[in-house]
Amino acid sequence: MTFARRTYERKPQPLYRPVEPRGSYAKPQAFVSAPKQPRAENRHLLDMARGKPCLIRSPICNYDPETTVACHGGGVANGKGMAYKVSDALTCWGCSACNHYTDAYAGATKAQKAAAFMLGHLAQVCEWRAIAASTQADPKERMAAQWALDQLNATPVGETP
Ligand SMILES: [Zn+2]
């Protein structure tokens, strides 16, 4: 058995090739995609939501702390589905019903969902401030709350602007 070398066949070439930019041309700024940001994560901050009261209190709220999770909010307004991912600091305690309300619920407009989430998140910042400032709170929770406030560049606790 022999292994005959195949004859090289040149592919048919187009009569002219479209001109492609070569060399050190910089791409126009509009076409350069932003580098992906690493997602700001804090597992302890998310775990802290367990058993906490719902802060969203949407029209379909179940007011059951047993169902509370850290909601990241739905929609592009918070960066979901874009080049960066939603930070764990951009969350709030929400019951299972409100978590659904701010995401897939069909009975509310995008604006209503965004408003419900943002109100919940504002209440959340107050809660985190209270936890971060409390000497009674679990030191782990204090650290997690302070981490969130730092991420949000919120005013330090006890400081008046
Ligand atoms: Zn709720």
Explained architecture:
The chain is mainly alpha-helical. The protein has a domain at 39-121. 30% of the residues lie in helices and 4% in strands. It has a two-stranded antiparallel sheet with strand order 1-2. Helix 3 (110-133) crosses helix 4. The radius of gyration is 26 Å and the shape is elongated. The N and C termini lie far apart (87 Å). The model has no long low-confidence stretch (mean pLDDT 83). Zinc ion binds at residues 54, 56-58, 61-62, 94-95, 97-98. The site of zinc ion has 10 residues, from helix 2.
Give a quick summary of the entry.
The protein is mainly alpha-helical and 161 residues long. It has helices spanning 43-47, 96-101, 110-133, 139-151, and strands spanning 69-71, 92-94.
Summarize the topology.
Blueprint: H1 43-47, E1 69-71, E2 92-94, H2 96-101, H3 110-133, H4 139-151
Antiparallel strand pairs: 1-2
This protein binds zinc ion.
Zinc ion is lined by residues 54, 56-58, 61-62, 94-95, 97-98.
Give the N-to-C terminal Cα separation. Answer: 87 Å
Round the mean pLDDT to the nearest integer and report it: 83
Largest sheet report: 2 strands, antiparallel
State the shape.
Answer: elongated
Q: How much strand?
A: under 5%
Number of discrete helical segments: 4
Structure classification: mainly alpha
Could you name the ranges where pLDDT drops below 50 across 5 or more consecutive residues?
none
Strand order of the largest sheet: 1-2
Which ligands are bound? zinc ion
- What's the alpha carbon Rg, rounded to whole Å? 26 Å
Helix and strand run: HEEHHH
Indicate the percent of residues in helices.
25-40%
Number of E strands: 2
